[in-house]
Amino acid sequence: MWPPLILIFLILSIVSINHLPLARARGQWCVVSPSATDAQMLANIDWLCGHGHVDCIPIKPGGPCFEPDNLRSHVSFVMNQYYQYNGKTEKAYYFSNTDIFVFKDPSYGDCEYDY
């Protein structure tokens, strides 16, 4: 049997470690590559939004991710949504080499990227 003091220390250590920033799982987001062309980004957004693969309301006027109103920002948001909601698999990440992973949360203001 473990002495009570050691048992208390172990329990507190286990509880405390979940509150350390370095101990938490880090996110991974799928966003559009800086090298993607406008035509490629339009094809991605058309496929994702035009076929109902993701909820595109957040990138429409008045939505939390509409601003900044630019193609690159909108495409990154919906590409990440598709990746996250489809199991974070390789298949959900393939956008004809127009995608990259980032490990810093791209969320801003009221626009929250899922992870």
UniProtKB/TrEMBL annotation:
Protein name according to UniProt: X8 domain-containing protein
Organism of origin: Brassica campestris (Field mustard)
Localization in the cell: Cell membrane
GO cellular component: plasma membrane; plasmodesma; side of membrane
Domain X8: 28-113
Chief place where the protein resides: membrane
Keyword line: Glycoprotein, GPI-anchor, Lipoprotein, Membrane, Signal
A Pfam family this chain is assigned to: X8
Signal peptide as annotated in the record: 1-25
